[in-house]
Design goal:
The complex is a heterodimer. Chain A is 64% helix and 0% strand. By secondary structure, chain A is mainly α. Chain B is built from six helices and seven strands. Classes of the chains: A mainly alpha, B alpha/beta.
Chain lengths: 138, 174
């Protein structure tokens, strides 16, 4: 009984992964297929808040996947495919936006905050160390 | 120095408040169109009723609206009366997007036809070239054929005042 229940739950968990793979695309090479999957992860669905076209069910994502597939078979490079998408849907479609003046905070921000945090912690440690030294009579 | 630090939480709160307040009025779904400032992409599409080939040369002289619609699109029905009203003074080109021909024809017959030109884009190819994510979307094209604004979702009075009226005022008029 328990085993059947666990089996059922496991099956249900896997079900989500299955509907994403209903479409079948033909590729010239395994390398091309790998690039298709990678692009599917890096291009963002224009209709969804936060989903890549590779794992989105939106009709527009389906269209964009088909377009990526078409461009791949035509021999376009990854760069060309991304440029094609950006020309139509803007930089919103890139999950990894290029580094430029508009996106510099996006790229540098986390590091900056990390450095700030480490600096603050180091400062506190030095302060408390000094206080400790003064308290302990030598 | 110590006393100054006491103000830090308030300062942080102040900064956060500004960001959160701004966030209240931001639409996270709104995206600037990549085609603003460019002319309409070239296309070859059938006319919805006759099946005759249409290209960008058949578009009216601007300013005009290009409305992306479909019979399966609920919001298109919502904006339809307002669009019909607008079409009395401003030409509206209809781009029937990923639809079935008879369903689209029935829709127009039932609700009325505000369009000066009917493009039938069943594969969504022009939609893709325009960066359309879904229907309805409306592009505002100025007198020189350049896309000036894009409205995602319903065209209404507010969208008109914010996106369409400025284009008409700024030399968009004939």
């Amino acid at each position: 009984m328990m085993r059947a229940l666990v089996g059922l739950l496991a099956g249900l968990l896997m079900a989500t992964a299955v509907w994403a793979a209903i479409e079948t695309y033909q590729f010239d090479s395994p390398d091309q297929e790998a690039r298709f999957r990678q692009l599917g992860l890096e291009l963002r669905c224009p209709k969804c808040q936060n989903q890549a076209i590779g794992d989105s069910d939106a009709p527009i994502s389906k269209d964009l996947r088909a377009e990526v597939h078409r461009l791949l078979l035509e021999g376009a490079t990854d760069q060309e495919i991304k440029a094609f998408m950006v020309a139509r849907y803007g930089r919103y479609v890139l999950y990894r936006p290029p580094l430029d003046r508009q996106t510099v905070y996006l790229w540098v921000g986390p590091g900056l905050f990390l450095a700030l945090g480490i600096g603050l912690v180091a400062y506190r440690i030095r302060l408390s160390k000094r206080a400790l030294m003064q308290e302990t009579p030598s | 120095m110590r006393r100054m630090l006491l103000w830090l939480p308030l300062a942080i709160f102040g900064i956060l408040a500004v960001f959160f307040f701004r966030g209240l009025s931001l639409d996270p779904n709104a995206q600037p169109s990549a085609l603003i400032g460019r002319t309409l992409p070239a296309f070859q599409l059938m006319e919805l009723h006759t099946g005759a080939m249409l290209t960008e040369a058949d578009l009216p002289s601007g300013p005009y609206l290009l409305n992306v619609w479909a019979s399966w699109c609920i919001t298109c029905q919502v904006e339809h009366p307002y669009l019909t009203e607008l079409s009395k003074t401003l030409p509206v080109v209809g781009l029937n997007y990923k639809d079935q021909r008879t369903a689209a024809q029935n829709w127009l017959a039932k609700l009325g036809d505000p369009y000066v030109l009917h493009l039938f884009d069943d594969s969504g190819q022009l939609g893709l070239d325009l960066g359309v994510a879904g229907a309805p979307e409306t592009f505002v094209v100025d007198a020189s054929g350049v896309i000036r604004a894009r409205i995602q979702g319903e065209v209404n009075v507010r969208a008109f005042e914010r996106e369409i009226a400025p284009v008409l005022a700024a030399g968009g008029s004939r």
